[in-house]
Design brief:
Largest sheet: 8 strands, antiparallel
CATH superfamily of the largest domain: Regulatory factor, effector binding domain
Radius of gyration: 19 Å
Shape: globular
Order of helices and strands: HHHHHHHEEHEEHEEEEHEE
Oligomer: single chain
């Protein structure tokens, strides 16, 4: 059941700009609409319809931040909304109109959802650009578990993951996260993130997949775990939105190079698939 729901989420994420319905997703996996909807709700705690609607809003918010060359009307239309319907649906979802959200998102700072009293200020485009390298990354075959919840729980979830799959942590294995949501936009308890460990193709477990390689913008971060949010937001909101690149996939990758759990300190590469 978990693997079916995970694959259906992948399908929904890839197809957000299509005319998705509960039936069309169930049909894709050869399940009855009723049976699939019941399985999905049991696994995620959310109906398929609500999940699709939420992801459309969250992804459109990311587009408002990154795609300055597209109008609000065009972005709403991309996700199947008329101008008036998009504005009202977006405001209901975020408590701000699309225009207000876009203006706030481009203000050079962001409220930190993990520390409500804290406002993070971004660096300049040039500062980020100096530290970003464009690289060709290989395909990665990984063992993974999908987390739907708060990014604040990632450390705890990683420790559980490490304990559960300790025998697969071989020399040279990489720990990485594949993240789909912007925590400054998404509801805190509904962010989608895959905790991954690179493994050999011969790994006998079912929860394995290939993360496609290709061209990536790679930003090396070294510092406190508490400051990762600001670094990620700055790279996306400032560098990516002003660069000549667009995201190739609807996810980013965090590849860990060093982790000091006791000191909450990491060295990691933030990797954005670009075209």
């Amino acid at each position: 059941m978990r693997e079916l729901v995970s694959k259906s989420i992948d399908y929904i994420i890839r197809s957000l700009k299509d005319d998705l319905t509960v039936k069309s997703v169930a049909d894709h996996f050869h399940y009855s609409e009723f049976h699939f909807a019941r399985l999905f709700k049991a696994e995620t705690g959310e109906s398929v319809y609500a999940f699709i609607k939420r992801l459309k809003m969250d992804q459109s918010a990311i587009d408002l931040k990154l795609k300055h060359n597209k109008s609000i009307t065009e972005i709403g239309s991309d996700y199947g909304y008329s101008p008036s319907n998009y504005s009202s649906a977006f405001k209901k979802h975020t408590a701000a109109s699309p225009a207000q959200f876009r203006k706030t998102a481009n203000a050079g700072k962001v409220n930190n959802p993990f520390y409500p009293a804290r406002t993070d200020v971004f660096e300049t485009y040039a500062a980020y650009d100096d530290r970003i390298k464009i690289e060709e990354l290989p395909d990665l075959f990984v063992l993974y578990e999908r987390m739907i919840g708060s990014y604040a729980d990632i450390k705890e979830n990683w420790l559980k993951f490490i304990s559960k799959y300790r025998e697969y942590f071989q020399s040279g294995a990489r720990m990485l996260e594949r993240f789909y949501d912007d925590p400054s936009v998404a509801s805190p308890g509904s962010c989608i993130c895959d905790l991954c460990l690179s493994v050999e193709n011969s790994c006998p477990l079912e929860n394995v997949t290939t993360i496609r390689g290709g061209r990536f913008a790679v930003y090396r971060y070294e510092g406190a775990i508490a400051d990762i949010f600001c670094a990620v937001q700055g790279v996306f909101s400032v560098w990516l939105s002003q660069s000549r690149y667009e995201m190739r996939e609807r996810y980013g990758l965090s590849i860990y190079r060093e982790i000091e759990w006791d000191h909450n300190h990491v060295v990691m590469d933030l990797c954005i698939p670009i075209q």
